[in-house]
Amino acid sequence: MKKIEAIIKPFKLDDVREALSDIGITGMTVTEVRGFGRQKGHTELYRGAEYMVDFLPKVKVEIIIADEQLDQCIETIIDTAQTGKIGDGKIFVYDVERVIRIRTGEENEEAI
Questions:
Q1: A Pfam family name for this chain (predicted)?
Q2: Beta partners for 44?
């Protein structure tokens, strides 16, 4: 099993969720996060004062999937979240040793 963490632009979340649902990915965890990479921050004007916004709003999508779904899931996220501009985000892939559904005690693939 694999865990995918995708950091994407917030306005792309609904499109990514729908696209993943279309390929059979039904469960995910979404967190509003803030950060920066090469995009750095930017300056904004508020009540006449200019200030630096260091951390930009992003969304982190976490998905646990079976190994055979990995490539299709990654391709779907890239195709849907990509704008071609700086700050599109990143995808991280981790190995998952064990998953347990608390309610039923099911484990691993049966639990996801």
A1: P-II
A2: 51
